[in-house]
Amino acid sequence: MPLTQTEITELASSVRASLTACGVTESAYGTDHDAFSPLTGERLAGLRTATNEDVDAAIAAAAEAFKTWRDVPAPLRGNVVKRWGELLTEHKQDLANIVQAEAGKITSEALGEVQEMIDICDFAVGQSRMLYGKTMPSERPGHRLMETWHPLGVVGIISAFNFPVAVYSWNTALALIAGDTVVWKPSGITFLSALAADALLARAVAESGAPKDIHRLVVTDRAGGQRLVKDPRVALVSATGSVRMGREIAPQVAERFGRVILELGGNNAAVITPSADLDLALRGIVFAAVGTAGQRCTSMRRLIVHESVVDQLTEKLVTAYGTLSIGTPLKEENLVGPLINEGSYEAMQQALADAQAQGGTVLTGGNRVLTDEFPEAYYVEPAIVRMSEQSAVVHNETFAPILYVMTYTDLDEAIATHNAVPQGLSSAIFTQDQAEAERFISASGSDCGIANVNIGTSGAEIGGAFGGEKETGGGRESGSDSWKAYMRQATNTVNYSGQLPLAQGVKFI
Asked: Which residue ranges does the record assign to the Aldehyde dehydrogenase domain (predicted)?
């Protein structure tokens, strides 16, 4: 059932109410930039954007705050992140409302994104007491050899629209406990979510007595983002977005010998073996392929199926796609929301046309729907395309719900097909054969940063490091020892012997 005109009109008001609840003040609003909802195509609010001078001032303030913040003991730095997590828990529904309205996610995914923020705060608070360094045996008597980890400096964060707050929190929670300060440039599409997340952090900082400039938000355009990338005061740039963006950012930061964490494109695949539990695989595939309307960096875009089960699985998939409820996520019964904008819709249509020109057959989906109810919004039917060979379109990431189905005869062929694309983020295999599973996650198997067994390509937990290889950029965020990227390592030798022996037996008089 479509939204009523009253419900459409009230969307902007409800978003403003949630922003106010999170602590966003009227000073944030203006006429420089309009935020629109992909749910309806309607305007949500006008914003005041940062000038180049504002960006420079934010970097300067963060650099100055770093001089104090770096000397605060790490467990005390963790208190800020702990309080942020508590406020995120308190305002989970408010922030999820904004994320849903601005990014177009279904309710459970919007709530799940905020839960990711809460989870990384919990993780980072614990990590603040575990910034461990090693002690190594010295070859010289009376010497201690060890490593220590120190704060790095200002961390610049550039985030994408599809996860408007979660990826920011992955970086910010770890950067803050590491002793760094943060300057955040959010996506130009999802500024409102950024305002709310930053306002809650500002409250946590104030209530914890930390320096107020350890975090700064710059709502700015591409030129403002360039200033953040090129500024030598920014020790680390963590950027999430397209491969094109990464190709621009990486050389600019490298030129000044800065550091980067790049989370770029994903062209993720699952291999379905003859022994796979097809019902389990079906559920994993559908969620990974159509969740967030195919607009996740970990969305499943390729399906490599053994020739003995491809027809059976494809039939199940087409049937399942036919049951998907497509519509505004404000209605709980809908599982597939809109594409973010017209550009995404046009890219999807072009990819489908290219696939057919290259020998593919569209088995289902691809059509725009709900045009009468939401003429300015872009709802589409998720598509399944049977491909006869590894065509060029399959090697490209299209940020939309298109699933390409291909076949294989033996596992070596499947792995070769899987690894043939330039991206290397997430991957999966569905099998009941342990040898196949182990082969897939071995050094000669999947070449991705994430390799799963009997689970889809999306839905990563914060406890594991997140990131990928090849054109995905090589960055790692979130769990495991990702915290090390936000710190600098020092090797220390302490001589307590009263003598001065040299290493490697060198004699010098």
From this structure: 31-489
